[in-house]
């Protein structure tokens, strides 16, 4: 007896700006798409890691999304190149991750016929901090609504604030063709609960070193703490994202180190090593993210969280439960919250335990895979019946 489950799609194309971003955040998504399709094609920029993606059972087409560019001529030209790839590959569905691929994909789909579309908003990115926020948000909203109006489209978001901004609060009760994912999800077995490190409470930040992440706010908080007599510094783990216009200059980071405010450890290959040595995770974002994966990793390892009051972070962290939520951009408030945890390792441990329990409530890789698979099965069910 043949027990093979028939897959609902022949080929799904996954569009993500960077190969390293695929590997850091979207392996659960790839696994879900492989359940749904005979072939998963990943269209991404090759920075030298596409062979790692191919080991996951997906095929890669190298493509530069020009994510640092908003030039009015380059955007349509880039979209045209994407359309040519889609015309050649003829996927049954396309999954567009983050705003740049969503914008380019919307333009490309004007000439390339793809029956089903997954619209995957991982945050509002540079829109959140832009001086032209209103105009850019209006454009993004129009594009997402246009894609969502297609009969076989599904919208994925990581928090309800982004959903309300893009489609309007009137869609919240209906939930038609919408899934609120638990971020990128984490594997709680891999990111197991770790014992609290011994000695004074230590602080760590994990993530790209860009302005929207609020690293400079965390540094100012450390200044306030040191002025109040606390002998502490912030341990920074992450790389400088040179292609991002918000990248923090290496000279600035070295100045922070020279002042004794921070230690920069560069990129980290195993985040668990960070949380073996640090007791508190600092996530001082200015906004624009869906739900930071670094937050979920720290929580899964049992670490207390100090975050700012932005959509993704406040969805996960309840003030006084898994950690503290402070006003965005307020270094003094951030310092005060950190100071409370530094004064009480027992409080850190209690909040860390509750943070791990929170991860198990729908923020795991398994939950993301389940929700994405269900969405694609629903899209497959919407396929028009062939005439007999």
Amino- and carboxy-terminal Cα gap: 29 Å
Q: What is the alpha-carbon Rg in Å?
A: 21 Å
* Percent range for β-strand residues: 15-25%
Put simply, the count of helices is: 15
Number of strands: 13
Strand order of the largest sheet: 3-2-1-4-5-6-7
Largest sheet at a glance? 7 strands, parallel
The average pLDDT value, as a whole number, equals 91
Shape: globular
Helical/strand content category = alpha/beta
Q: Regions with pLDDT < 50 over 5+ consecutive residues?
A: none
Q: What's the helix-strand series?
A: EHHEHEHEHEHEHEEHEHEHEHEHEHHH
Assign a percent range to the helix content.
40-55%
Short description:
This protein is an alpha/beta fold. It has helices spanning 19-25, 27-36, 50-54, 74-89, 99-108, 133-148, 160-167, 215-227, 250-258, 272-277, 293-300, 311-316, 331-342, 345-359, 365-381, and strands at 9-18, 37-45, 59-62, 93-97, 116-120, 153-157, 178-180, 203-206, 234-237, 262-264, 280-283, 304-308, 323-326.
Describe the structure.
41% of the residues lie in helices and 17% in strands. The two termini are 29 Å apart. The protein is built from 15 helices and 13 strands. The chain has helices spanning 19-25, 27-36, 50-54, 74-89, 99-108, 133-148, 160-167, 215-227, 250-258, 272-277, 293-300, 311-316, 331-342, 345-359, 365-381; strands at residues 9-18, 37-45, 59-62, 93-97, 116-120, 153-157, 178-180, 203-206, 234-237, 262-264, 280-283, 304-308, 323-326. β12, α12 and β13 (323-326) form a beta-alpha-beta unit. By secondary structure, the protein is of the alpha/beta class. The model has no long low-confidence stretch (mean pLDDT 91). The radius of gyration is 21 Å and the shape is globular. A 7-stranded parallel β-sheet has the order 3-2-1-4-5-6-7, sandwiched between helices. α4 (74-89) crosses α5 (99-108) and α11 crosses α14.
